[in-house]
Input
Amino acid sequence: MDGDRAANPLTGVPGRNTWPESGPEAGLQSEGSLMTKPIERRTARLTLRCWGDQDRAPFAAMNADPEVMRYFAALWTEDASNAAIDTWLSQFAAQGWSNWAVEITHTGEFIGFIGLSVPKRVLPFSPCVEIGWRLGRSFWHQGYATEGAREALRVGFETVGLDEIVSFTTLTNLPSRAVMTRLGMRDTHADFDHPGVPEGHPLRPHCLYKLSSADWHRQA
Output
């Protein structure tokens, strides 16, 4: 990351403010606190939007699907699923971006999440902003993850002004690693043990991919 750029006070990550000074996503000042309008985007087929209560049940069902969660150490309970949504909603309120709920635009069907987040655990490469995605099984193999993630990268680099975005997953998660490669991210070959996965668990070893702002703008 560019050491000449100040760390953002919300993320600790070098780059400019997470809200534009003008335009449709401009921050709104309210009594003693900064309120930010959530950034939402559309692609050719997808809408990346803030979360609503209607998303809670399908998201919980997706997180309870063993096939969807095969690269995680455990399934998510309904409480864990709702807690994640609540965390992301608070991040949208504070900074305007987080993990978006994603729907197919022409049907309004919820398909999962794609977005940007600051990992809650301290990792060997912290501080950082991660791009991630999780889609319901019936929406795999249709290019949705790559399409939505490319738009999330656009927000991160061109709206938020991040210097670098990372992505990581367990070594055996070849589908997600393929998406990272299609996005132009590079494998750093700096594998690490994820602290959120129990020691000795086969999913603990993780790979790390990165994309810099300079590389994003070169390939855009």
User: Anything to note?
Assistant: The domain at 39-219 is CATH 3.40.630.30 (Aminopeptidase). The CA atoms of residues 163 and 187 lie 17 Å apart.
